[in-house]
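Appendix B, example 12.
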Amino acid sequence: MSASEKIKARAEQVVGKSVRKAAHTLGKKSTEAKGTALEARGKARQAKEKGKDAFKR
């Protein structure tokens, strides 16, 4: 997993989680869903990069 892709994946997860929690606190359902989607995209990116690393070895 390249360092820049690893950082992007982790950043998406962190930002998504914070957006989700803040929106939940404020009762904003649509923003909460967007945060959840961003967090899921970060997890998917991380899984993709781990898969690529497995094939390189």
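The mean pLDDT is 91. Residues 49 and 55 are 10 Å apart (CA to CA).
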